[in-house]
Amino acid sequence: MFGQLYDRALTGERCWVRRDDGRVSRLPVHNWLGGRHADDRFDTTIVDMCEGPTLDLGCGPGRLVSYLVQRGVPALGVDLSATAVRLARSSGAPALHRDLFEPLPGTGRWQTVLLADGNVGLGGDPVRVLGRAAELLRSGGRCLVEFDSAAIGIDVGWVRLESASTIGPWFKWASVGIDSMPALAAEAGLAVAGIRHIGTRVVATLAAA
């Protein structure tokens, strides 16, 4: 989805995100890579919330999967970027280079599914993403979903990555506010089990039947 420019951002090229309405924001790749630029409070808290075998959808370079594995928690990441998967594996995080909607191991048996860093907005279709998470969970499992604390409702639009030398292709994305969470969860067949604020960020726990 992100394409080659995203891969280059992961290896050091400075990039930003442009929306079709003209808004521009920094691509927070340093946060995703972990290390000294990571949001340690968020990462530690959401990892603490994970129970049992955990699947991270859109794992990027695998920082959360790596933390889970270090704690002895069985975990697997999934990402479309070959560069992200390579970086994840180099940090000791098991990861698959695959679309999250393709067949995945353990379907229907995961205890925890992670959707952090805005990944509930993948493809501009949060209902489809949450529905896929519900398919992957075991009965009684939980999906930990980060929502956009600055958004109201569901803001679907076209975005692209840019750098000083390259303009990437447009792709669909959604910013999903926590106010829309109850309706989205119900449509995906998940029950709201809790909401947790972590600094300026917010995570909902959605339970499978």
From TrEMBL:
Q: Where is the signal peptide?
A: none
Origin superkingdom:
Bacteria
The organism of origin for this protein: Mycolicibacterium obuense
Extract the InterPro entries matched here: Methyltransf_25, SAM-dependent_MTases_sf
**Could you tell me the Gene Ontology terms of the biological process aspect for this record?**
methylation
Q: What SUPFAM superfamilies has UniProt attached to this entry?
A: S-adenosyl-L-methionine-dependent methyltransferases
User: What Pfam families does the database record attribute to this sequence?
Assistant: Methyltransf_25
Keyword Methyltransferase listed: yes
**Protein known as:** Methyltransferase domain protein
Give start and end of each Methyltransferase domain.
55-141
Q: Which UniProt keywords apply?
A: Methyltransferase, Transferase
- Name a GO molecular-function annotation: methyltransferase activity
